[in-house]
Please model this.
Amino acid sequence: MVEYQKMLDVAIEEARIGLSEGGIPIGAALFDKQGNLLGKGHNRRVQENDASVHGETDAFRKAGRQKTYRDKIMVTTLAPCWYCSGLVRQFKIGTVVVGESVNFDGGIEWLRENGVEVIDLNSSQCVEMLKNYIEENSEIWNEDIGEE
Model:
């Protein structure tokens, strides 16, 4: 049995690392269907001055090439934005586990409409971590989601 909370704990730890580095606390990890970790990462847009380093893309890159992604599970502390939702669809990642979609719901309905299994764990820990960050860093947050 796949334990989604344990997978989310890996992503939460990545989010905490990002926050400790002065970045946006969003973490992610890519697992196979047996629950084996393939790659993990966190949003490093601020740290690396690179708008493309979202948590999901960081984890995806660190997982290396896979023969197929249909049986992979992307776990993220926050609902994936359109950019990261596009990554999920492009590579046909079969399942996305979301820590929370309260602060931002991204493309999760679009993913569901396109056959991706989306599991929202509604983690109070994830909600609180990002809520606090947004309150303290609204300008950086708005930049991250493409708002002015």
